[in-house]
Amino acid sequence: MKLSVALFFAGLFGALGAVFIVLSFGTDYWLLASESCDPKPDGSVGPGGVTVERGDMVMQKEINDTTFYHEGFFWKCSFGADMDDENLLWKLWFTNQPHSKVCTHAYLFPFPVSHQSYNATDYDSAIIYRGFWSIFMLIGVAAVILGGFVIICAAPFASHRLYKAGGALFLTSGLFLLCVVVMYVLWLQVLDVVDLYIAYKRSVLCRDFQLSLNYGLSFMFAPVGIFFCLLSGLLFLLIGRTVQIHYY
After folding, report:
1. Neighbour-count burial for 35-57, b at 16+ CB within 10 Å, e otherwise
2. Nearest to 227 by CA among 11, 23, 17
3. 42-88 pLDDT, tens digit each
4. Cβ neighbours of residue 215 under 8 Å, at least 6 residues apart?
5. What is the pTM of this model?
6. Distance between CA atoms of 187 and 158, rounded to whole angstroms?
7. Is the Cα dihedral 84, 85, 86, 90 positive or negative?
8. Which of 3, 20, 205, 239 is 20 to 30 Å from the Cα of 159, by its Cα?
9. 75 and 28 in contact (C-beta within 8 Å)?
10. E runs forming strands in the chain
């Protein structure tokens, strides 16, 4: 009876973990960003980079053109809009998409890295960092899917080896995806890539350049999936040990 209850919860947690991880992997909302430049003539530089001198009159529309981005494992998309970035999550969600947007592959090109704002060494380092991030993500997703198939095969035969193998795969998936989440946070919060990008934009575009970064729902799904994967992995390992002791 106790073994059946443990199997039920282990299977439930494993299924939830797999669902959240696949959602995190398949949706391109790990990062939500918006950038804007609202030049305000103050006696130095006006719209279009034209020098404004004392006594000049500048006519300017009260429009704040903003470029929005959302990025995930597969795609990095952007679109322009005339709005502020307050409720950024809802502006970029599935049901509130713009009529047209530009999407490029994001496998090895993490936002906000570009050839223009970084030298060759920094750009190559960013690609290598993104490459490891992508590899860890693929290993984590593959491990949780393979672990699910192994557990399904283990159920009819009550095989302690298959239960242990499935539990190990779930644990492997959770650990690799934990590395993915930590690497993503380090990329945005600790490394200087965002500061370099902002400094470059302010030097070539305008001094009032603003960049807003937020974690999206795809990023939020990942820790939930990791928690369920680790929990189900430990339970399956315990079940495999119990089956081995009592039935072999």
Report:
1. bbbebeeeeebbeeeeebeeeee
2. 17
3. 545 444 445 555 555 545 444 456 788 888 888 888 877 665 555 55
4. 30, 31, 32
5. 0.80
6. 44
7. positive
8. 20
9. yes
10. 31-37, 65-71, 75-82, 102-105, 209-215
